[in-house]
Amino acid sequence: NTNIDRDDIEKYIQLGDFAIDILIREQYQTSKYGKTFDIDENLTLPESIKENFYEIDRLLSTIKIVDPAVGSGAFPVGMMNEIVKARTALTPFFKEDEQNERTSYELKIQTIENCLYGVDIDSSAVDIAQLRCWLSLIVDELNMEHIRPLPNLDHKFMCGHSLLEEFEGNKLFDEKLLIQFPKDNFLLNHIEKQKKELYEELHKIHTGQKPNNGRIKEIQRELRLANNLTLWVLQATNSIFLKNYS
């Protein structure tokens, strides 16, 4: 719900904790030389990220991620590392006393306790996923003489069947969501036609049949807009169908 441009968010995720190195260098130059030197704007966080850092951090700390076939836990651990990296990049914008509490260990344990969930039909896979999370925490424990208790993950990673249609007589999926949308939707067909033309133009640019001239970025934005519009149309159509079938 934040008014942050998608490009700014993508840049923030791509830079990750590298942005911290740039900030530290900038602060060092200010303290030593009394001024900062020009830094490539492509290597700094967008202003919209700096202005909304607290809200972005809150959203990252409460996002919910579930792996319905958790296996060895590679996906949830990988997602945990990405969330921690993204939140770490925001740490310099917090007050000093808050920065001291935002260690890698604390951010990891918050992510595990609040964000990650997993299910697997194989109980041994669940055990491995839990172990993998614990090991990822231990490597960041600074006080090896007083290691804190590891979190209970029994309610985070559980043994179960993700493909069950019902449990104890209760339907686990609303079949109304499977209603087919009309294929003669004029607006959807128009959007799909535009997307096809954009993809064809993009292909010509990549294959050298057409010059770029900054057009690639424009095409990518137009495709994102088309995809968002498609979702909006589908949601609006879905609500109409649900009213008819309820």
TrEMBL record:
Its EC number is 2.1.1.72. It catalyses: a 2'-deoxyadenosine in DNA + S-adenosyl-L-methionine = an N(6)-methyl-2'-deoxyadenosine in DNA + S-adenosyl-L-homocysteine + H(+). GO terms for molecular function: site-specific DNA-methyltransferase (adenine-specific) activity. The keyword Nuclease does not apply. Signal peptide: none annotated. Gene3D superfamilies: Vaccinia Virus protein VP39. One of its GO terms (biological process) is methylation. Residues 114-191 form the Type II methyltransferase M.TaqI-like domain. InterPro entries: MethylTrfase_TaqI-like_dom (IPR011639), N4_N6_ade-DNA_methylase (IPR050953), SAM-dependent_MTases_sf (IPR029063). It is an enzyme of class 2 (transferase). Keywords: Methyltransferase, S-adenosyl-L-methionine, Transferase. It holds the Pfam family Eco57I. PANTHER family: DNA METHYLTRANSFERASE A, DNA METHYLTRANSFERASE YEEA-RELATED. This is site-specific DNA-methyltransferase (adenine-specific).
